[in-house]
Amino acid sequence: MRRLAVARAVAWRTLHNVFTNPSLFIPSLAFPLFFFIAFAGGLSRVSDVPGFDYPAGYTAFQFVFVLLQSAAFGGVFTGFGIARDFESGFARRLLLAAPHRSGIVLGYAVAALVRWLVTAAVITAVALLAGMQVGGDGVDLVGLYGLAVLLNGAAVLWAAGVAMRLRSMQAGPIMQMPVFLVLFFAPVYVPLALLEGWIHAVATLNPLTRVLEAGRGFLAGSPTEVAAAFGATVALAALFSVWALRGLRRAERAGA
Amino acid sequence: MTASADQTYLLARRSVVRTVRQPANVVFPLVFPLLLLAVNSGGLDAATSLPGFPTDSFVAFALAIPFIQGALFATMNAGTDLARDVQTGFLNRLSLTPMRGIVVLLGQLGGVVALGVMQAVVYLTVGLAVGVRLASGPAGVLVLLAFAVLVSLGFGALGAFAALRTGSGEAVQSLFPVFFVFLFISSMNLPRDLIAIDWFRTAATVNPVSYLIEAVRSLIIEGWNAQALALGFGIATAIAVVALALASWALRVRMAR
């Protein structure tokens, strides 16, 4: 119970900071929307490429990428806040005050999730207004958003681990760049089968490819790679939970 | 050497040294556009099979993007460095000297232009290394470098204007998403006549960044396209002239003696 109380307090404070500070909230909302407009709008002719066979259309094809991207970056942006808390000295007081410190990590994760849910609601509304076709039923959509939630959790745990080890805003690129690379080395613009050369090899090995393909399958109503996608996201979340908790221990040892 | 030229040289050298001494200011503007080039050229290679696509190599088509993206980073670097000079009081101390405002500005932009040329050489070398051949030949390389200087100067001056007006590095950094919108809502990923969505094609057509990209692209994949080059150089010159005028005015206000 005390762990949950810590988590609730940390989450409330983080969310209060984010939603009352436009410079923190607007970029995390605007960037996915902008990517959606740029990709779904500017590249829609790519659906005419021979072999492009996604039944729900290019808008839906890009929506899934942008939804997953927003989930991942929602986690990373929350990591920036953790780094800021350490740099400002607030985290030091937090570590002194919290009876169960793992609740701190849980609180940041809850904040990342709530923050992303708001972004996801806006992106979904915009996509539907733009005429996105949804072929999947309710269960499929739960699968799609469930994958995004798991990805959000994995991303915030990754970013928390980095922030708690480096305890500086200088850690921003280290949190952001690997996530950016993993996202963009997946089949972003065309299905995996249409990629050729080195990018095909990299995308095939990239665990996010499974997540992206499963998400697109859910939205089109023809689920595919479901076990591999959920397996990959659960494994990433579990791995980064250990990474984040060990980061917390390291911050404790360093006296933050 | 006249006093003004001497002062410009000293400030330009300071700007270059300061840029080079901050690895993040050199590495990120070099690596990030190349990373995006790799991702886009790999992911969108299939788009070359669209009827009417002007080349069968997406790398050649996309190689123009880093040149313009690098200039956007130059804007941020120039603005952030100048904002730091405002915040630390360096500019106030300069205002106590008889140095002319335009000298301060040109000196500050020296580092940005030097980085712009270095970026252009790196992008071109990477392009040649992965098999891109300039349709415009060796003379096209010189035109490309001249264009890089002009674009870096123009965007660098825009960053300087923002820095002088706000006096805040954070405010300059917050301009980055705005420039990113200009870059993405352009013909960067597909030729304008292949953009299917009407409003997007219209936005790309009125977006000056499209013409900057198309000028560089014409040298790489077409050869000598007078219209594309005239539009590109014309718009880049206009941006540079307007931005330098705005930055000069902002500097006069900031350095009011």
Set down the secondary structure blueprint.
The complex is a heterodimer of chains A (256) and B (257).
Chain A: H1 2-19, H2 22-42, H3 58-88, H4 90-97, H5 102-129, H6 138-166, H7 172-184, H8 198-205, H9 207-220, H10 226-254
Helix pairs in contact in A: 1-5, 2-3, 2-5, 3-5, 3-6, 3-7, 3-9, 5-6, 6-7, 6-9, 6-10, 9-10
Chain B: H1 3-20, H2 23-43, H3 58-62, H4 64-88, H5 90-95, H6 101-129, H7 137-166, H8 169-173, H9 176-184, H10 198-206, H11 208-222, H12 226-254
Helix pairs in contact in B: 1-6, 2-4, 2-6, 4-6, 4-7, 4-9, 4-11, 6-7, 7-11, 7-12, 11-12
Structure description:
By secondary structure, chain A is mainly α. Chain A has one domain (2-254). Helix content of chain A is 78%, strand content 0%. Chain A is built from ten helices and no strands. In chain A, helix 3 (58-88) runs antiparallel to helix 7. Chain A is elongated, with a radius of gyration of 19 Å. Chain A starts with a helix and ends with a helix. In chain B, helix 4 (64-88) runs antiparallel to helix 9 and helix 4 crosses helix 11 (208-222). Chain B has one domain. Chain B has helices at residues 3-20, 23-43, 58-62, 64-88, 90-95, 101-129, 137-166, 169-173, 176-184, 198-206, 208-222, 226-254. Classes of the chains: A mainly alpha (256), B mainly alpha (257). At the A-B interface, helix 2 and helix 7 of A face helix 2, helix 9 and helix 10 of B.
